[in-house]
Amino acid sequence: MNSDPVQVRLSGAGGQGLITAGVILAEAALLDGKNVVQTQTYGPEARLGSSKAEVIISATTIAYPQVTVPDILLCLSLEAAKKYMSLVHHDTLVVLDSTIGPEVTGRGRIVRLPMTATAVATGGKMAANTVALGALNRLTGLVSPESLRRAVLARVPERFRALNAAAIEAGERLASPAEAPA
Questions:
Q1: CB 62 within 8 Å of CB 41
Q2: Are 35 and 77 in contact (CB under 8 A)?
Q3: Which of 51, 58, 64, 71 is nearest to 129 (CA)?
Q4: What is the chain's percent helix, strand, coil content, to nearest 5?
Q5: pLDDT for the residue numbered 182
Q6: What is the rounded average pLDDT of the residues 126-131?
Q7: Which whole number is the average pLDDT over 156-181?
Q8: Beta-carbon contacts of residue 147 (< 8 Å; ≥ 6 apart)
Q9: Could you write out the DSSP letters of every residue in 45-82?
Q10: What is the reported pLDDT for 3?
Q11: What is the dihedral of CA 139, 40, 28, 154, to 10 degrees?
């Protein structure tokens, strides 16, 4: 991404690990020496309610700590896509899980990837957030791959490190910069 700062919104249902994904992305950017702001919101339900993590990454000082219009929008649930698709601009990279049907359209450069299915094939649906981070980073180059791996492996419990390392790689294989629409 050439924009600075880059505004990222990660959205889905509670329990999909998007708050953790936002923290990991922010930590990876810090490891790269960038300035970062990370915020999060979620519904009153701990599981299945809506959740959103926002991360602003910049090489310079961040003047406003809230995402206004995302440069990147990730949606892992239909509800999140319906809620946030209208809040993007025509240049926003919108990455949707392939479980979100074709009825969801809108502005932005839309990429659909089977992130949840890839997580299941990798070893567990709970790793969909990590697959998504690997794919998103491969598409955008937001942070260095090494910093992303370090941040993921530092954040997850030891018993899940092998699964999450495999999930990052699966996400990276799932996406390539050429898949991001021009």
A1: no
A2: no
A3: 51
A4: 45, 20, 35
A5: 44
A6: 96
A7: 86
A8: 28, 29, 31, 32
A9: SSSSSEEEEEEEEESS--S--S-SS-SEEEESSHHHHH
A10: 77
A11: -120
Distance in angstroms (rounded) separating the CA atoms of residues 41 and 106: 23
Sheet with 72-75, side-by-side order of all strands: 35-42, 50-58, 6-13, 72-75, 93-97, 109-113
Q: Identify the architecture of domain 6-179 in CATH.
A: 3-Layer(aba) Sandwich (3.40)
Structure tokens at 20: 């953790």
Read off the pLDDT of residues 32-71 as tens digits, 9 standing for 90 and up: 999 999 999 876 655 566 789 999 999 999 999 999 999 9
- Residue 179: pLDDT over 90: no
Bond preceding residue 181 cis, omega within 30 of 0: no
Selection from 82, 148, 76 nearest residue 117 by Cα: 76
* Distance in angstroms between the alpha carbons of the first and the last residue of the chain: 12
